[in-house]
Structures are given as C-alpha cells and as structure tokens.
Design brief:
By secondary structure, the chain is mainly α. 75% of the residues lie in helices and 0% in strands. The protein has 2 domains: 258 residues, no CATH class; 102 residues. It is built from 18 helices and no strands.
Amino acid sequence: MELFNNSLSTGSTLLLFACVLLVLAFEFVNGFHDTANAVATVIYTSSLKPRVAVVLSGIFNFIGVMVGGIAVAMAIIKLLPVELLVGKGAGVGLAMSLSLLLGAIMWNVGTWYIGLPASSSHTMIGSILGVGVANSLTPGHAFGEGVNWAKALEMGKSLLISPLCGFAAAGLLYYVMKRYARNRALVEAPPKNTPPPLGTRVVLIGTCSAVSFAHGSNDGQKGVGLMMLILIGLLPAGFALDMSANTARTYDAVVAIDKVLVEHADVAGAQQVTAVRARLDDLKMRLGGHRDISEIPEADRFPIRADILLLDKDLTKLVADGDIGLSSGEREALDKRRKELRGVTDYAPLWVILAIAIALGLGTMVGWKRIVVTIGEKIGKAHLTYGQGMSAELVAATAIGVASTAGLPVSTTHVLSSGIAGTMVAQGAGVESKTVRKIALAWVFTLPATMVLSGTLFLLLRMLLA
C-alpha cells in the first residue's frame, strides 16, 4: 500500500508531512516533559545517576508503547469524530490537525520551560476539544456539535479521579510502611549523595522502570491516536480501514448481527432496528465479493468506516435501552460480533506505533532536569525518603497500567506528583503550598487554556487553508 497518493495537492502533502512531524514532536516533548515523573525518585535517593536514569526510563517508555496495545489510542480517536476531518475537504482537516498539534506543543513547552508539571493528557484532550468546539462555531454547524461529549466526560472523570486516588493510595501505603517497616532507613531522610542499600536500590530502580513502562503504554498511545486521527482524516483511502483485516470475517460479522436484528424486528424498537438494518445492507453491498480490504474501491473505504462506527453507536443505544429484548447469551454473542466488526476500524499500523515509541523514548532522554527539581525538591518540605519514592511510584505504575487496560488516558504527572504529596502528608513533613498551588492551577487551567489556544489557531488556519 502506498503511504501517500494523488488525492492531495503538493502543498497539502507537504502540510500533511508537517502534521506527521508535529505528532512526533508532541511525543518527543511529552517524553522530556514527563520523564521527571519516573526518574525524580531514583535521582533524589541517589539510586541512579541522572543520565543512567533517563536512558533507562527512555528504554522502558519505548517498550511500553510497543506492547501497550491501542485501547487508549482508540479512545482518543473517538473523542473527535473523524468525519469532521473529511466532511469539508482536506484544507479543514489540515487546519484541525495543525491547530490541535501546535496548541498542545506550545502549552507543553511553555509549562516545561517554567518547570511546571502540567499534564500532557489534559493538554492533548483540551486541544482536541478546542478544535471541535471551534469547528461548531463555523457556518452550518450547531454550537458544541462534533465533539463526543460522552467520551469527553468519561475521560474527564478519569483525569479527575486518578490524582485523588494517587494522593490517598500513596499516602496510605507510606503510612503503613512508616508504621510497620522494620528497616527504618526506608522512612528516614537518606544520606546525601550516598546510594541506598542494594535491596532498596533494586526496588527503587524497579518502580522507576514500572512507571516509565506504564507511561509509555498510556501516553504513547495518545500519540498513536493523534497520528491515526490525521492519517484517517486526510488519507481515508489508505487508512480508514485495516488493510490486513479479514474481509470474510468482517462480512460474516455483518450477517450475524443482521440475523440477530431480524429475530427481534417486531419488538418496541422496530423503527430503530429498520434503520440499523439499512446500514447493515449498505455494508453487505460494499464488502461483498472482495477477498481483501485492499480490493475494496477507494471511494468505498471511508463510507464503510463511517457505517461501522455509526452502526456500533446505534447498537450500543439499542442494547442499553433494552429495545430489542436480547437475552444475556444473545447479548454476549452480539458483543463478540461487534468486536469482530470493529477490528477493521480499530487498528494502528506497526510503523505508526514504532515511530511514536522512538519519539517518546528519545524525548525521555533530554530536557528532564527542570521538572525533576520540582518533583524532587519543591512538593514536600522534607527530603524524599526511599519509602516515599517506592510508595508513590508503585501506586502510579499500578493506576496508569489499569487505566491503559481500560482504555482511559490519565496524567502520569498528576498521579505521581499527587502521590508524592500524599506521602509527604503521611510522613508529617507537610507540602510546599506554593508548589502544590501551582500544580493545581495548571491542572485547572490546562484544559480551558489549550481549548482556547487550539480553537483560535484552528479558526485562523481554517481561513488560510480551507
């Protein structure tokens, strides 16, 4: 399959390359912006030299991206309907892509420069929402349309709850450690510039690696989602569908779903069932007779994607409302078929995942010092102990890993920094209110600030490119 074709002009193709490079730049910035979250504890407990710590973190970030799956990436794609990127032509798609990427990078670099542990997750989601809302202000749209607000609310809850859980869980874990640990060195200020005992050092290096891996598996997927959002929107013929997917399996899933609906067509939701079946008939027509996805005419590929996404949305509503009266066994069978059907749309090519992994891994190895100082020295009023580092990183790695599995983006920055704050409270040392206030303000203002920034950029670029 050719990566690019003649569907874009020379100028648009150059801008598309710029968008791809900007996604990689976002992940690179994300790497050095968030590296401090993983390496601050091993640096401030003298477990590892700074350069060794950031290289180790970069390696585990890379591995996390490569094996972390794409659940979070698909959640990012669903936040802003891809139809918006192609509905008005490539110019609007490029304006959307450039504005959300430039807005996210500008905010990330700015907060990094002043040493503020702001959230890359908030930054990216705010940029996407800003573009969606700005698009709804243009002629022919209703205010607020074009954004998946249900998915945005789900992500918002995840971003709100995760730092609170990090604070409470890390504080509780450290309190238990402080009360019951036989090795009192774990809860006392470590000697300056002296490595901890071997066992403690191994644990701290392990938790640093775990946080780095979890960060890669969650934050790396955000870059994958952004890359796919751009590629699908601007080159639907090549990326709307997974070219390696099994056409026969997809067709069989359509037939099986249609069979279920036929058996329940006379229930309360008959009108909705009829509309869904019409979409299934369209899919049968477009998929039938093709052995491979690559054989499907280019003009049919994005309509197939749109049909599958809208079909899945309609089925979700029908099942949730109970309109088609499925038994538990029928519901399980339908869920299985829906998953098979979404297999052709929920994907990311290996080269995309690899490119994001390299960008994030390389970014991790530079620019870490500014935020390390904030994490290691300015959150609490006392020097970080071995036990505090262990507690905060164990909780952060676990929380981020669970979120990645569930397909929810969370902020590594806020989970870990709130965890450190929780351990400081449990230690009785207290927190530096000035630093915590700055982090909290960044948490509050990142979303609206990036929405305004990316939305304004979109409206300006739309006039130039559309």
